[in-house]
Amino acid sequence: MTGPTTKDNSLAIPSSHDLKRWLIFGGWVGLSILLFAKTVYGLVQLASQDESSSHILLIPFISAWLLYAEQKVRQPGGSFDLWPAMAFLLSTIFLALLASHCPTCTHRDRLSIFALALVLLLISGFVLILGTANAKASGFSLAFLLFAIPIPDVFLGKIIYALQSGSAAIAELFFNLSGAPVLREGFVFHLPKMSIEVAQECSGIRSSLALLILALLVAHFSFRPFWKKLLFVFAGLSMMLIKNGIRIASLTLLANYVNPNFLYGKLHHQGGIVFFLIGLALLWPVFWFLRRGEIPVGGVVSGEPGKIIPRKSELPGDL
């Protein structure tokens, strides 16, 4: 019997070599932000004014936290990878030129292209300084930066229309379940005392994006098989429509049968968090079902149901 020979890598302090590379990458990030200072300023302005972009300012901080959380899966002392990084750098240059010479692009479209160029520039620096292998290991964290790109006008209208259509269909279902006499004409619902329209403002794109981002993060950390991740994100997309349909139907029924002020009060204009929590509650059974059979962190499933065998590094010694 021998004593323990395995060390806990989770508490390992980065070597001076790795620390230098991270400092160099930090300098790359700073220079990239200075180079795209006008784009960064435009993103800050857009995030403060547009509900479909209000999440943008949080994305860099979430990505930084993800990079920190994934430090255990990266290889220490990666090598500089010039040629893979060049592919991202050339894409950055191409997109910057495209945004600068696009007469048909709207202001939002140009901002989206410049933001994509900035993200690719950051990724090129990561690949160059920390290596391709570490970039692959941190692929989710780097790809998450794409949420910092505003949705271009050419896609935004289609997404809002899809949310309107889906929300109206779900609302119609709840109207039918309630037994209330309702006549639907497109996005307009006629009730005995009033008519309401599912307008673009009722699409719920802000809370829908928040629910999608949350579903992606939960799927990334909670599930190992790709099909489970995909199914949970799909469930999150479905809950976006369901919670919005519930909001439309419930507020309309309350306004029609209780008090018309429900369409103008706080629950309508500031009650998004309530229906967001309803969406999370509906998503919980899906999460619980998919978590069944998942391997707990730090162990592997044995041949016997419900029994966990610790990894070799966790055993007190080698026999």
Provide tags for this entry.
319 residues, mainly alpha, 2 domains, three-stranded antiparallel sheet, 12 helices, globular
What does this 3D model show about the protein?
The chain is 62% helix and 5% strand. With 319 residues, the chain is mainly alpha-helical. The protein has two domains: 14-150, no CATH class; 155-294, no CATH class. The strands form two sheets. It has a three-stranded antiparallel sheet, with no helix packed on it. Strands 4-5 form a two-stranded antiparallel ribbon. Strand 1 (183-185) and strand 2 (188-190) form a beta hairpin. Helix 4 (82-100) runs antiparallel to helix 5 (107-130). It is globular and about 70 Å long.
> How large a portion of the residues is in β-strands, by DSSP E?
under 5%
Mean pLDDT: 82
Shape: globular
Q: In terms of structural class, how would the helical and strand content be classed? A: mainly alpha
Order of helices and strands: HHHHHHHHEEEHHHHEE
Stretches where pLDDT falls below 50 for ≥5 residues?
1-12, 296-319
Distance between the termini: 5 Å
Give the total of beta strands: 5
Output the radius of gyration: 25 Å
Question: Can you list the strand order of the major beta sheet?
Answer: 1-2-3
Helix amount:
55-70%
Biggest beta sheet attributes: 3 strands, antiparallel
Number of domains: 2
